[in-house]
Structures are given as C-alpha cells and as structure tokens.
Specification:
Layout lengths: L1 H17 L14 H14 L15 H11 L2 H16 L20 H13 L3 H19 L2 H7 L60
Helix pairs in contact: 2-3, 2-4, 2-5, 2-6, 3-6, 5-6
Length: 214
C-alpha cells in the first residue's frame, strides 16, 4: 500500500507541475511552458485592464520579455527566477488561496483568487514571503513598463533624436548587448554642432515607440 501511495503521489505531483498548460504561441529559450503561463497570468492580475494605464498586463508580452532577460542572465540568476516562478505557482499547497479550490496551482485559480494569493504574499507576517512578492513584482513591473504603449501613457517614450557620434559611442554598446554589436568606427565620429535646437514635448517619438498607424 505504501508503494502505491507513493507512486500515486508522484504521479499527482507530476501532473500538477508539468501537465495541463496551454501550448505557447511563442518560442521560449529559457522559460518553461508552465512558467510562461504563470508570468502572463500574474502580470494580468497585477496590471488589470482599465486601471490608471488602460493596457492590461496580459497584452505587454511579459513572458517573452522575461525570457529574454533570463537568456541574458547568469546561470545563478536564471535558477533564482525559475525557483521564484515555480514557488508562487505551486505554493498554494501550503498557503491556501481564497475560496473553493484554493489549493490549485496559481494558473488554475480564477483572477479574484489569484489576486487574493498575491495579496497574501504581499501582506504576510513572514518577511521571506513579502520578499518573494517584492521580487516577483519587480520582474513583472519591468516587463510591463517596457511596453511602448505603457511608455507613451506615462509620457516617457523616447523621442527620435538625431544625435552626433562621439568617442564614447565607440566602446559603449547598447545595454545588454555585446561590444561586437557597436556599429560605429572612428570615421563616424562627428564634430559637435552648436546649431541644434532643444527638443520639445511635441517632438516625434522614436519609431520603435510611436503609435502604430496601420
């Protein structure tokens, strides 16, 4: 009987942890299928549609963003992110969510229950649980705030600026990029100009952040 019980328990844990997740429409280099589903669900609850910023968290591509972040991170950071997503997804086994079926994994709960689960982490009397929530909120906030529509709503989308190339541009790649991606050479360095007019709030946005006119 003990062997059957252990086998049944292992099968149940396997089913809970790995099965029943929707097939992703995006190819992920680092995120597992369940992790991608969790990230999208948690971001949607944390940033609901119709809030101060109308765009819902489910519309910003949080999972692809965090997948790219994980891919660019060191192995230790990737392991911590995997552990964080897995913990909050399945912690309802110990910290029961509100309502009926509160011990289901996070992505199987309805949005109100998911919100209750996150509030439980946020307001817990245990510092470790609050720290987990802060870590998750920080990652999801970065994923949400990077979206062009969100940046436009906040009025901080970058503008289209025709800048000169200086010596520093020859050794500073874009954030997170390899130095080999620097497109400039010594011949591209420009002489500083004195006739450039200051930017104003009506200046056009960078094409990557401008409204889609299609």
């Amino acid at each position: 009987m003990t062997g059957l019980f252990v086998a049944a328990l292992i099968a149940w844990l396997f089913t809970r942890a790995l099965l029943g997740y929707p097939k992703p429409t995006t190819h992920y280099r680092r995120l597992l299928r369940g992790e991608a589903a969790f990230v999208e669900a948690a971001c949607g609850v944390m940033f609901p549609a119709g809030g101060a910023i109308p765009l819902a968290g489910t519309e910003v591509g949080a999972a692809p963003y965090l997948d790219r972040m994980m891919d660019a991170s060191k192995p230790r950071i990737r392991a911590l992110m995997h552990s964080l997503f897995f913990l909050v997804e399945h912690a309802s086994l110990v910290f029961r969510g509100p309502g009926r079926g509160g011990r289901r994994r996070f992505t199987r709960l309805d949005p109100e229950q998911q919100l209750g689960v996150l509030r439980g982490w946020e307001t817990s009397s245990f510092f470790a649980r609050r720290l987990v929530f802060v870590s998750l909120r920080s990652l999801l906030a970065m994923a949400y705030l990077q979206h062009p529509s969100v940046l436009r709503e906040l009025g901080i989308a970058p503008m289209a600026i025709d800048t000169s190339v200086c010596e520093a541009d020859l050794w500073m790649p874009r954030v997170g990029a390899d130095p080999s991606t620097i497109p400039w050479s010594v011949s591209d360095v420009n002489t500083p100009r004195d006739d450039v007019e200051p930017l104003n709030l009506d200046s056009p946005l960078h094409p990557d952040y401008a409204e889609d006119s299609s």
